[in-house]
Design goal:
Layout: E1 21-27, E2 30-36, E3 39-43, E4 48-53, H1 58-66, E5 68-73, H2 79-85, H3 95-99, E6 103-104, E7 113-114, E8 119-129, E9 135-146, E10 151-152, E11 155-156, E12 168-172, E13 175-178
Antiparallel strand pairs: 1-2, 1-5, 3-4, 4-9, 5-8, 6-7, 8-9, 10-11, 12-13
The structure holds flavin mononucleotide.
């Protein structure tokens, strides 16, 4: 194998593989949506996630003020809207109108869902910190819903032949892939 050195600021992309999110926030009646790739699980009990959001994002201060958000998980048909929500700011533009996305009421939060998405994770803000150029928002999951045809028994099904049921993964820039081919590993084979 021939290994090339990777620029440090791009090295995080080597770990790409989680679904990208459309994060919704609502404050004083205004709803905003931004694309968010940097969302990671931090704890199962309590169920916590870490969201890295740049302070320049309009969403950043809305989330601090509203104290809650929804992580919506899109599939292939929403890739173009994900790019728009990740390049246009809600400070200037109503992105829900721009992208023709639709909203549903949240179940355990005041923040609405993006109806067209496969799944919705409702979150309450726990804390913020500033480890670097992005703010780390630690949020607690207070509710979660997913399409039955896409997520069953706690797992993404990733059906090979149906892009509408495959979560979208951001690789960087304008490059995306899909969670499209799952398989089961034999636990006895790793050490034989
Ligand atoms: C696929 C994708 C993923 C992104 N992930 C993040 C992220 O994890 N954190 C972040 O701060 N910005 C991220 N961005 C950039 C923001 O979505 C972008 O700055 C957006 O315009 C912010 O919107 P707002 O100003 O309405 O909050 C991402 C952009 C794209 C296209």
């Amino acid at each position: 194998m021939s290994k090339q050195e990777i620029a440090l600021h791009l090295a995080h992309r080597l770990t790409a593989g989680r679904p990208v999110c459309l994060l919704t926030v609502r404050y004083k009646g205004q709803v905003n949506v931004m694309s968010l790739g940097w969302a990671v699980p931090l704890s199962a009990e309590p169920p916590l996630m870490g969201l890295a959001i740049h302070p320049a994002c309009y969403t950043h201060d809305m989330l601090i003020k509203s104290q809650e958000c929804v992580l919506n998980i899109p599939a292939r048909p929403l890739a173009e809207q994900v790019l728009s929500c990740g390049t246009v700011s809600g400070a200037q533009t109503d992105k829900i109108t721009l992208t023709h996305l639709h909203l549903d009421n949240g179940r355990r939060v005041e923040t609405p869902w993006i109806s067209e998405c496969l799944a919705h994770i409702e979150c309450a803000l726990v804390s913020t910190s500033a480890p670097g150029d992005h703010t780390l928002f630690i949020v607690e999951i207070v509710g979660a819903w997913a399409e039955e045809a896409a997520f069953k028994d706690g797992l993404w099904l990733c059906p090979r032949d149906d892009e509408e049921l495959q979560p979208l993964v951001h690789l960087g820039g304008t490059m995306f892939t899909l969670l499209s081919s799952s398989f089961i590993v034999n636990p006895d084979k790793g050490s034989s």
